[in-house]
């Protein structure tokens, strides 16, 4: 889909100032611009007017200063893996690509923290850390940049045990809309020194400034890791096993639920032979004794809730195969319907309501005639329906949007949120109002105070005015 | 000490409006007012002009609305256990006491969450939860209210394992400076629905609004709990044992360090007979097997670092005795110097620098001639020096303040913070500027946007203008 605008949001004088400062780091080539607006999921292409490959915080500060003077919007770009159109240049402007700011600046092994430039990806960081017995736990699936993960408040498969970005970011360097550079937080594990600006920028989707450096918490690679797959006769049984295990205090590291259709997609895509039933993908971290105890405890719980064969393995190749299949589940889902695109939902509900929310959603999808596998981070109550639609078929588009809307309404009625981890972006602004109605005016007040001209990633989270 | 002002900050018309609305819930009695300005630690008494015993969010909203119309400051009050003078009426005004808003509104056992009024204390909540196998983990020592713990961003002895308030608050009800009531967050475990206002109000010290309800995460009471005490020949040995245990992945639930002088104070106050050496108080949570493994692993690590006898016990009475001694350590310290008052410091440094920071601080205190035991949450790098001073001796006051200032400077030079968990309050405003210099103007901008007339707990965190 194309949503090209007819005129540039960057004035000739601003473009000239940017070119003078950045030379070949700046591009206005249609291919480069288009490449920065090609996003996952169901969103129109909205390319920026120019793209800057930033190499330093000073580059970003100068670019923001020039754009502020010229009234040009600024959109921060990391890996482009957002599912909510965060990098779309809704009002045109300058996209600041931080992917070349990919230096690991500092690792403190005793303190288990690191400072990285915003363009470092999570896989790059973990490769860097491996020899030091440390890892960064937040895993949204995609190999996102740390700056992008901060800005969407990302989480993922390990959040049940290690928390998401909010729990693992200690401090930030941010370029404010004025071009001023601030640092928030620090290296310490905890602080009550004034307002928690680190938390404010985490999940702000680039609407309050551009994150250029991130101080993160690290964790020790566990002595032992085991992975397991367990199919259940009912979806409710799988969810109940998870609830019971958490209450019982089993310190699960990963608990992922895939519905029967997702398992069919995984088998077809990854050439695996899993049972095509509601299935949990699990991981256990701890000492050798601890992991064995956790796995055996969970096996007992699973059996009581209709779980089938429970095989667990500590072998690296078994674990890699399992998690590769899980991480490719999104692409496996897309492959169920070649030529179609996806609307990916992201609701999160209290876990006691999760089974009913998913079962009702499955029935709704089936009644709509769409293909829509469901998978999720079941320990957190967060799941995704991947609704496949033909972008050329207005009727199917309308049906897909209607199902997605009902999923949100269902989640909100159950005490949930419209977005557990993907953010609001361009597509969930109305849902945010429905969910956080009394709080949105305060969010808008903060936005107005920090970015009075509304040039930072406009059109995301809420509409101006 | 007294800092009484000569005139009231509440106009006669405002007082009349408050009296008409609240009747006997409102008091202007000198004893009640003084009682709400009698704070822990070294701060002048600054009583409010009136005190409201609030019974509902509507009460708070109406009080804030009336005060906003009349230009009167509003100070929220919970248990009064703040150590940084948060409840002092620096500019007079109305203190809103929330201690009678002490209903546990909802407990969801499957979801392990609860909603409470802001005046519920942590001990009250845990007594309420005990039969359900759940507990609320944040333990700052004092039996603070949940609303107060939100507002100072409290943490404490269990933060190393369960996180502090930031990790355990899911949502809030807040009365804004306009009198408007908003809800933030929700019941879900995670969300990326807009700016994280819950995090913004956590640690805002009542300067952005009054928290009236708190949604908290709960945790399962572990199958087994063991406590242990271990003395070390050197303070560095104790700290190194902790660093090694964390890196090794021992999931410690509590790790408290008391220096030799603190142990002497504890023995004298609690009639215990611990070795008067640098000592770790420890707690292990898990399965029976897991706790045994953790305790044995830690015993081995302690031995390698100069640890002495390592006795651990799962008996409730042994654990209670141990933690009661630890929790009374502040009062034990005060009892070292009867008639004196304390300046309690609260720095936090990267744990790799903790031993040098404490050892240099001990030497500094000794050189100053003051009595100042040191204890802390060693796993987080956070420690407190309790500097005893004679409030009638200007020279001792000056020496105490100078030592406290040097402790902060030392911590900042080591990459630390001036306050790990007590907040900024009235006493650390200059230190906040030294530590978070580039970020403070943005904090002030947010304060100005949300509370333009500066009536919410004035004189805390930063000075107006």
What does this structure look like?
2 copies of one chain form a homodimer. With about 475 residues, chain A is of the alpha+beta class. The first copy, chain A, folds into 4 domains: about 10-100, Uridine Diphospho-n-acetylenolpyruvylglucosamine Reductase, domain 2 (2-Layer Sandwich), CATH 3.30.43; about 105-220, Uridine Diphospho-n-acetylenolpyruvylglucosamine Reductase, domain 3 (2-Layer Sandwich); about 225-330, Alpha-Beta Plaits (2-Layer Sandwich), CATH 3.30.70; about 335-420, 2-Layer Sandwich (Alpha-Beta Plaits). Chain A is built from 17 helices and 18 strands. Chain A has helices at about 10-20, 30-35, 55-70, 120-130, 145-150, 160, 165-170, 195-200, 235-250, 260-270, 290-305, 315-325, 330-335, 355-370, 395-415, 430-435, 440-450; strands at about 25, 50-55, 75, 95, 105-110, 115, 135, 170-175, 180-185, 210-215, 220, 225-230, 250-260, 280-285, 305-315, 340-345, 375, 380-390. A 7-stranded antiparallel β-sheet of chain A has the order 15-12-14-13-17-18-16, sandwiched between helices.
Give me the secondary-structure topology.
Two copies of one chain form a homodimer.
Chain A lengths: L11 H11 L3 E2 L2 H6 L14 E4 L3 H14 L3 E4 L16 E4 L6 E5 L4 E5 L4 H8 L4 E2 L10 H7 L6 H4 L2 H4 E7 L5 E5 L11 H5 L8 E8 L1 E2 L3 E9 L2 H14 L3 E7 L1 H11 L8 E8 L1 H17 L2 E7 L2 H12 L1 H7 L5 E4 L9 H15 L5 E4 L4 E8 L4 H20 L15 H7 L4 H11 L15
Parallel strand pairs in A: 2-4, 3-4
Antiparallel strand pairs in A: 1-2, 5-6, 6-10, 7-11, 8-9, 8-10, 12-14, 12-15, 13-14, 13-17, 16-18, 17-18
Helix pairs in contact in A: 1-3, 9-11, 9-14, 10-13, 14-15
């Amino acid at each position: 889909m194309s949503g090209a605008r007819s005129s540039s949001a960057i004035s000739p004088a601003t473009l000239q100032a940017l070119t003078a400062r950045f030379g070949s780091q700046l591009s206005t080539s249609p291919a480069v611009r288009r490449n920065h607006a090609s996003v996952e999921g169901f969103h129109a292409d909205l390319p920026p007017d120019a793209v800057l490959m930033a190499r330093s915080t000073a580059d970003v500060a100068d670019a923001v200063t020039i754009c502020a003077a010229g009234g040009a919007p600024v959109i921060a770009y990391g890996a482009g893996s957002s599912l909510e159109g965060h990098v779309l240049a809704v009002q045109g402007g300058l996209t600041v690509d931080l992917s070349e700011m990919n230096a690991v600046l500092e690792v403190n092994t005793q303190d288990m923290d690191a400072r990285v430039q915003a363009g470092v990806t999570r896989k790059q960081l973990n490769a860097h850390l491996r020899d030091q017995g440390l890892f960064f736990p937040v895993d949204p699936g995609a190999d996102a940049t740390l700056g992008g993960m901060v800005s969407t408040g990302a989480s993922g498969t390990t959040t049940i045990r290690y928390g998401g970005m909010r729990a693992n970011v200690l401090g930030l360097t941010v370029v404010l809309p004025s071009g001023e550079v601030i640092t928030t937080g620090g290296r310490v594990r905890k602080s009550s020194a004034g307002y928690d600006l680190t938390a404010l920028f985490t999940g702000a989707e680039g609407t309050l400034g551009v994150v250029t450096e991130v101080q993160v918490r690290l964790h020790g690679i566990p002595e032992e890791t085991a992975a397991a797959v367990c199919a259940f006769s009912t979806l409710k049984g799988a969810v109940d096993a998870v609830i019971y295990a958490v209450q019982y205090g089993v310190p699960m590291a990963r608990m992922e639920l895939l519905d029967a259709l997702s398992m069919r997609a995984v088998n077809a895509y990854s050439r695996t032979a899993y049972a095509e039933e509601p299935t949990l993908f699990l991981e256990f971290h701890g000492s050798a004794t601890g992991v064995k105890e956790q796995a055996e405890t969970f096996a007992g719980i699973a059996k009581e809730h209709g779980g089938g064969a429970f095989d667990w393995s500590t072998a690296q190749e078994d674990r890699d195969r399992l998690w590769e299949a899980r991480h490719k589940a999104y692409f496996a889902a897309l492959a169920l319907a070649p030529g179609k695109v996806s609307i990916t939902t992201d609701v999160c509900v209290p876990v006691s309501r999760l089974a009913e929310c998913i079962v009702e959603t499955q029935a709704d999808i089936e009644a709509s005639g769409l293909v829509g596998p469901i998978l999720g981070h079941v320990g957190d109550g967060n799941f995704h329906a991947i609704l496949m639609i033909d972008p050329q078929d207005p009727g199917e588009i309308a049906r897909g949007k209607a199902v997605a809307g009902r999923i949100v309404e269902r989640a909100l009625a159950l005490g949930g949120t419209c977005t557990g981890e993907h953010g609001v972006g361009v597509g969930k602004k109305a849902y945010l109002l429905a969910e956080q109605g009394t709080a949105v005016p305060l969010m808008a007040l903060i936005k107005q105070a920090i970015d009075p001209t509304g040039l930072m990633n406009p059109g995301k989270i809420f509409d101006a005015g």
